[in-house]
């Protein structure tokens, strides 16, 4: 008899080792070619386990069918997971580690011992003493989001296809790219999927069921300063880094960032910022800052009515001889 839990762990580790980071600056679909590495592996594995209609669609989405095992007219349901991982941290060279029957002591990640997972600081982790815990090695992301969903769906598919005595209607499987960069579902996918209901396995805590969507928008701010030698800069130099800091500082940090908000309250989340003061003219100084304006509904618990949502135009309120592009952030959900 197949050990389903062992299979799940094996699949998670194998899939996490494959670099599938998406790229928000890419114009292609999928945004990165490397997502095909996992999509094609899943295509082969689904074919080998006997799934029907295994199809890699032109927009980088893999679909397949687990045929019905009952005579009744059960609705077709679909299960989805995304294959990409976030571009915000290193995704190449992932070395997953399974900490078997974790005893609750600190988990020190071996490739960077300053990275320590502690039950004292992570209550959800603390509730999993005795479980197998999967982590990265300390220098990369793990990619559990959403390789966990992928591994669960693949294990479920293998189990159901190997056990046709288990009663179920037609099940469609769907593996999508570019979720982490907010590309959303391809407009043709619902038709290609052909399901009455669809569930995405991409959650947090075990047992959590989310029935609302999460909307977001992104602003990219680029600041052009005025560069001049600091020795004779008085009245002339405009430091792009100072301007960027002012923009970030006017965001509502006390009320509308991820760490101080919950439920349906929207938030602003500064993802990255960098650049330099200036080096020479006429070559411009450009200080890119990415400020996604997450303004949508996050379904945490029961939620409630949307609260006040202040609107912010991040760039143009700051004074000074600088140029800001794409500075107004908005979201249809607001
Ligand atoms: Zn995800």
Automatic annotation (TrEMBL):
Residues 295-334 are annotated as: Disordered. Residues 216-273 form the Peptidase M20 dimerisation domain. Residues 311-321 have a biased composition (Low complexity). PANTHER family: PEPTIDASE T. One of its GO terms (biological process) is proteolysis. This is Tripeptide aminopeptidase PepT. Residues 325-334 have a biased composition (Polar residues). PROSITE patterns: ARGE_DAPE_CPG2_1 (PS00758). One of its GO terms (cellular component) is cytosol. Its EC number is 3.4.11.4. Keywords: Aminopeptidase, Hydrolase, Metal-binding, Protease. It is an enzyme of class 3 (hydrolase). One of its GO terms (molecular function) is metallopeptidase activity.
């Amino acid at each position: 008899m197949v050990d389903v839990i062992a299979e799940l762990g094996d699949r998670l580790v194998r899939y996490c080792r494959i670099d599938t980071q998406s790229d928000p600056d890419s114009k292609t679909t999928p945004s990165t070619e490397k997502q095909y590495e996992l999509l094609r592996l899943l295509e082969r594995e689904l074919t080998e386990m006997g799934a029907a209609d295994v199809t890699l669609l032109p927009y980088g989405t893999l679909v397949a069918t687990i045929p019905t095992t009952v005579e009744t007219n059960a609705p077709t349901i679909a299960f989805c997971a995304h294959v990409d991982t976030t571009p915000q941290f290193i995704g190449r060279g992932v070395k997953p580690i399974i900490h078997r029957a974790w005893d609750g002591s600190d988990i020190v990640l071996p490739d960077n011992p300053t990275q320590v997972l502690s039950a004292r600081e992570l209550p959800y982790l603390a509730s999993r003493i005795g479980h197998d815990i999967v982590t990265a090695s300390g220098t990369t992301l793990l990619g559990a989001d959403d390789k966990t969903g992928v591994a669960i769906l693949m294990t479920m598919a293998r189990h159901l296809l190997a056990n046709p005595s288990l009663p179920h209607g037609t099940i469609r499987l769907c593996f999508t790219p570019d979720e982490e960069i907010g590309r959303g579902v391809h407009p043709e996918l619902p038709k290609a999927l052909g399901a009455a209901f669809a569930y995405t396995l991409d959650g947090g805590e075990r047992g959590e069921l989310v029935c609302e969507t999460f909307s977001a928008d992104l602003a990219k701010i680029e600041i052009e300063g005025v560069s001049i030698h600091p020795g004779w800069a008085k009245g002339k130099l405009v430091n792009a880094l100072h301007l960027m800091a002012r923009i970030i500082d006017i965001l509502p940090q006390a009320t509308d960032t991820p760490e101080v908000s919950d439920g349906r309250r929207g938030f602003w989340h500064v993802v990255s910022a960098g650049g330099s003061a200036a080096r020479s003219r006429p070559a411009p100084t450009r200080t890119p800052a990415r400020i996604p304006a997450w303004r949508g509904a996050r379904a945490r618990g029961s939620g409630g009515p949307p609260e006040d949502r202040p609107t912010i135009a991040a760039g143009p309120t700051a004074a000074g001889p600088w140029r800001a592009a794409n500075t107004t952030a908005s979201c249809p959900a607001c």
